[in-house]
Write a structure and sequence with these properties.
With 525 residues, this protein is α+β, with helices and mostly antiparallel strands. The protein contains ten helices and 23 strands.
């Protein structure tokens, strides 16, 4: 090993000058073979018109491989690394949300001559991902992507109305049997906005079932039979007109969910005989009215006769904002910790949760807009050691036109978080290569890197009508990994503007990034 000599000290004594020299190892150079193997991939013919930004460092920050590490590129959903880090730093991994129901008016012999007011807490999950054992769960192919036609989208085996039912049961136990007035949702915690990713994008302080109606289509017994169409949650707030037929077993599934009026949608198309049930979604445009209807139904389901209409609220007004001191608390629901929200946001790349987090950061800082939350995030990230000049974010999910970041800034983020108490929760939320989340099927089960890479993926793709193909605006991966020798690496890899065919889509580049991880695992320090 080459050694560098560093002068440490010298002292003069009578008739003798003493110079003390100590040998200190110089930083090891990246193995030549590793650089050659990585270069061979990123300079391939598929990337003649694309841009790469890559930085890999060891645990001490010494570079292992770099290509345009300071070039700001579109990170797609790698943006969520920054969003979740800011939320964990601002609020704490164990932060919980308390959703409280108050009663207003006179309660006499079980009859409330007044209103119930549910004060939304900003809880993104609202009990909809908690299983029977109290654990927050997810599916690798999240239901919120079913609106994009993801054939493998799945539903969790959870009850999306669990929190509302718990609140309704407590209202009943508090002595309320009849509500003569209205049922209201106070959604003034932060200003409504729109998310910056695909899927449901109505960002609101109240969220039930990720602000969607799930639609499960199950083929009939044979071609020509009608398919069974089931919705979740079932509610009188929406009217569904289903007509999906079962086609020949070789037919391609084709399902459309078509809005046909306020709170009214049709489901049309065909599914192949013998196929698996398919999931689609209908996004909810007004989360507050949706949640109100579901809560009215939950009250009735749990023995409280709520006389308010499910479809339309009365003319009752909300109490002055923040003024609940004169009201009586009737029920409280406490959420799982914030780290469960960030885990789902990172594992399945949940756009709605990521878009909500800046709003919650703003509330924690005494403000009410997503923009204020992003500005607070800027301060938190720079304090962590991230170069503010090397990132730009217009939202929390990764789909905003202004979202750009360098590979170096991303590695700065990861290394900064690794030195924080929140690292354990942050790291636990990262998808694991070949195991779960958005990295579940990127490499084979026999890959030597399987289970050794924890990283956030990113995909942003647009249709190129001029060439009848797609433009992969961004494919990205950033996280941490262990090499074959047990060394820890931090890395960020972005490739932008790759023309791809309809058949190729974004899957090829996902596998390419997986291959780069395998090369680093096998040949890294």
């Amino acid at each position: 090993m080459r050694r560098a000599l560093r002068f440490l000290a010298w002292a003069a004594v009578p008739a003798v000058a003493v110079v003390l020299l100590v040998a200190v190892p110089a930083p090891a150079r990246p193995p030549a073979r590793l650089t050659s193997l990585l270069d061979e991939v990123v300079t391939g013919p598929d990337y003649a018109h694309a841009s790469w930004g890559v930085l890999v460092t060891d645990a001490d920050g010494n570079p292992v491989y770099a290509r345009n590490p300071d070039l700001m590129l579109a990170p797609a959903s790698v943006t969520k690394l920054f969003t979740c880090a800011a939320a964990l730093l601002a609020l704490g991994a164990d932060h919980v949300f308390e959703t409280i129901v108050y009663r207003r008016g006179l309660l006499l012999n079980g009859t409330l001559r007044g209103d119930l007011v549910l004060v939304a807490s900003g809880d993104p999950m609202m009990g909809g991902r908690t299983d029977a054992g109290g654990k927050t769960v997810f599916k690798d192919k999240d239901h919120t992507y079913a609106g994009s036609g993801l054939a493998e989208a799945e539903l969790t085996a959870t009850d999306p109305l669990a929190a509302l039912d718990k609140l309704a049961k407590q209202v009943k136990e508090s002595g309320v049997n009849v509500v003569e007035g209205d049922v209201l949702i106070d959604d003034r915690l932060f200003a409504r906005t729109r998310g910056s990713g695909s899927g449901p994008d109505a960002v609101s302080p109240i969220t039930v079932n990720d602000n969607v109606i799930d639609i499960t289509v199950t083929p009939g017994a044979k071609a020509g039979d009608p398919a069974a169409v089931r919705t979740r949650p079932e509610t009188a707030f929406f009217h569904v007109d289903p007509l999906v037929m079962t086609a020949d077993e070789k037919a391609k599934a084709d399902i459309q969910v078509v809005p046909v009026g306020p709170n009214h949608f049709a489901v049309r198309g065909r599914v192949p005989a013998g196929g698996q049930p398919l999931v689609r979604i209908h996004p909810v445009d007004d989360p507050t009215l949706f949640a109100r209807a579901l809560f009215v139904e939950a009250l009735r389901r749990n023995g409280v006769r709520a006389e308010a209409s499910v479809v339309r609220p009365m003319n009752a007004s909300l109490p002055p904002r923040g003024d609940t001191g004169s009201l009586t608390k009737a029920a409280t629901y406490t959420s799982p910790p914030l780290k469960d929200v960030t885990t789902v946001a990172l594992k399945v790349s949940h756009n709605l949760y990521a878009s909500t987090l800046p709003c919650l950061v703003a509330v924690g800082n005494g403000q009410t807009t997503a923009e204020a939350g992003l500005r607070k995030g800027h301060s938190l990230l720079t304090e962590l050691g991230v170069d503010a000049g090397a990132f730009s974010f217009g939202g929390g999910a990764g789909g905003a036109p202004s979202d750009c970041v360098s590979a170096r800034a991303t590695v700065q983020l990861l290394r900064g978080m690794a030195g924080r108490p929140e690292w354990a929760a942050y790291r636990a939320g990262l998808p694991v290569l070949g195991v779960d989340g958005t990295l579940a099927d990127v490499v084979g089960r026999d890959s030597p890197a399987r289970g050794k890479v924890l990283a956030k993926t990113g995909t942003l793709i647009w249709f190129d009508a001029a060439n009848d193909r797609f433009l992969l605006r961004s494919k990205a991966l950033a996280g941490t990994m262990a090499t074959r020798t047990g060394a820890t690496l931090f890395f960020a890899m972005f490739v932008n503007n790759v023309p791809v065919s309809r058949e190729t889509g974004s899957g090829r580049e996902g596998r390419v990034l997986g291959r780069l991880c395998e090369i680093l695992h096998d040949n890294g320090p």
